[in-house]
Amino acid sequence: MASSELYHVKQQFYLGAYKSLIGLSLPDPSSPDYIPTLVYQARAHLALNDPAAVASLVPAASENVSVKAVSALARYVSAADSAKQEAALEELRDLAVEIEGEDVEGTEHDKLSVRVLAGTAFARAGEIEEALETLFAETEDLEAVAVIVQIYLSINRTDRAKKEFDRAKQWAEDDLLLQLIESSIGLVAAKDGYSNPNSFYTEQLGNPSLSSPHILTARGVTRILRNEIPEAKSDLEESLEQQKADAETLAAFVVAAGIESKRGEADELWARLQTEHPAHPLVLDVAQKAALFDESAAKFTVPPLAVAAAA
How far, in Å, CA of 197 to CA of 179, rounded? Predict the structure, then answer.
């Protein structure tokens, strides 16, 4: 069973309180909580799109498999070209094989972390089948289930995501991560007016020990889906105050302003999203559709206007 300190670390990570998490002091290196806390802090830096911080955080000489895995994931995220990305993926593949052996530096939790970190990298690389195989179907590691569910949701397989969640309920305790998984599925499945995710996010935001712009953004998106636009914008604005450069919050704000038909505000936010996050899926999708429109329009010949005959 995890200590109360490690439970708090996990809670911060699961709920996206990344800045709070990286601000925590690391336990003594002799503590069993040291490596898990170190890895969660490294993952928090990656979630904040700061892979460079991982290199300065983790001990370069560590042979622990989970430390090596999170370092490899950081190198994948920061890689400037495909060759460096592939090298990082190969290292993660090697680690996924290594943990099957007996002579491994790391606990069972560390080995499970390797699967989660490697599976995350493979999913980001578009290697969906390899990611799912690495995460291991029928696993009883709830973090792996959470990533599996996110993968299925990302490829519009809500049925498979729901199946994984139902299976996990048979063996997992009704803890925070299980509720978070259920809320993620509820957002995509649009069940009961999004009441479950709305209640879950509101409950977490009422926690005085938690400060998470991620949860604020999640509730803001939920409120957009519930057509509660002023309330959604309030959540998103508060989230941006805490984390000004967050792409997902800014993208959601663009959508909310557009629905509210505030053209000037929406245009300003859209220009900012294009400038600050040119590779965001929303920016790329709109650009692709604009190009398709221009291509179709170029093929259309406008007939001449009819001219009335002179009397």
Answer: 9
